[in-house]
């Protein structure tokens, strides 16, 4: 049986755990070679074991997503080895501290913006030439419903995700006449460590597992997925376009 992403090269950030790890495994199961980045080398090693179990292959890149020159070096390394990038999944993100905007610590604010916004800009900057070398470059960035709901005390996170969506939509518009398509994926409440920190009183077993949610990222990475500049949301009954 031909796998849906056979022969494709996919870069996944924040791939050592949670939704990122599940996305990497789901893409690998469909035949994509995974370039997995994360800060924790141990987590990447565990991911590699899981990818091998589904018959996939991976290149592990331990890197702090805030090391922006390292992102440039990664782009150069991908070009040297593959000459292209078919799939980019910008998943790495941080929650920050839940606090009134007026009380937000500047250091915490800067970290949230660096990881959730600037790192993804640097990924676009470095990977765009490689995505354009693909016959169907696909970029998917993980957003949140908080980009629109704007709950009290979630300011840094909400603002960063709103900025991310604006950036991805702009990038998508700039690629309207190319073979590159860029969209956002909103996973909703998912059984992850970040969700547990944000909602400590919530029963995680009432939430979908990251594997279930990440499976809906796969069709967004296929060459046949033609939407551009959309925000697509996970739902148990299937992926749907939210905005």
What descriptors fit this protein?
8-stranded mixed β-sheet, 243 residues, 42% helix, single chain, 8 strands, Rossmann fold, alpha/beta, globular
Describe this protein's structure.
This is Oxidoreductase. Keywords: Oxidoreductase. InterPro entries: NAD(P)-bd_dom_sf, Sc_DH/Rdtase_CS, SDR_fam. It comes from Aestuariivirga litoralis. This protein has 243 residues and is an alpha/beta fold. It has a single domain, classed as 3-Layer(aba) Sandwich (Rossmann fold), CATH 3.40.50. It is built from eight helices and eight strands. An eight-stranded mixed sheet has the order 3-2-1-4-5-6-7-8, sandwiched between helices. A hairpin with a 6-residue loop joins strand 7 and strand 8. The N and C termini lie far apart (34 Å). The model has no long low-confidence stretch (mean pLDDT 96).
Strand order of the largest sheet: 3-2-1-4-5-6-7-8
- Kindly identify the CATH topology: Rossmann fold
Low-confidence stretches: none
Number of helices: 8
How much helix, percentage-wise, in residues? Answer: 40-55%
Determine the oligomeric state from the structure.
single chain
Major beta sheet summary? 8 strands, mixed
Q: Just give the CATH class.
A: Alpha Beta
In what range is the share of β-strand residues?
A: 5-15%
The CATH architecture would be: 3-Layer(aba) Sandwich
Radius of gyration: 17 Å
CATH superfamily: NAD(P)-binding Rossmann-like Domain
Q: Write the H/E string, N to C.
A: EHEHEHEHEHHEHHEE
CA-based shape: globular
């Amino acid at each position: 049986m031909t796998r849906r992403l056979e022969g494709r090269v996919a870069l996944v950030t924040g791939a050592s755990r949670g939704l990122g790890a599940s996305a990497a495994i789901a893409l690998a199961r469909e035949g994509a070679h995974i370039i997995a980045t994360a800060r924790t080398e141990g987590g990447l090693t565990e991911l590699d074991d899981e990818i091998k179990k589904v018959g996939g292959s991976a290149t592990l890149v331990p890197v702090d997503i805030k090391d922006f020159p390292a992102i440039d070096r990664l782009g150069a390394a991908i070009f040297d080895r593959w000459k292209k990038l078919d799939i980019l999944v910008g998943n790495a993100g941080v929650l920050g501290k839940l606090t009134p905007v007026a009380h937000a610590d500047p250091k915490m604010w800067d970290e949230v913006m660096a990881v959730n916004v600037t790192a993804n800009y640097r990924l676009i900057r470095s990977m765009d030439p490689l995505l354009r070398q693909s016959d169907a470059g696909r970029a998917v960035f993980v957003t949140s419903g908080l980009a629109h709901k704007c709950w009290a005390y979630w300011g840094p996170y909400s603002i960063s995700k709103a900025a991310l969506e604006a950036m991805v939509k702009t990038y998508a518009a700039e690629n309207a006449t190319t073979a590159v398509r860029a969209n956002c994926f909103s996973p909703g409440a998912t059984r992850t460590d970040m969700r547990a920190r944000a909602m400590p009183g919530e029963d995680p077993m009432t939430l979908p597992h990251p594997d279930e949610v990440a499976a809906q990222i796969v069709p967004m990475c296929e060459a046949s997925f033609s939407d551009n500049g959309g925000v697509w949301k996970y739902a148990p009954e299937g992926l749907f376009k939210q905005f």
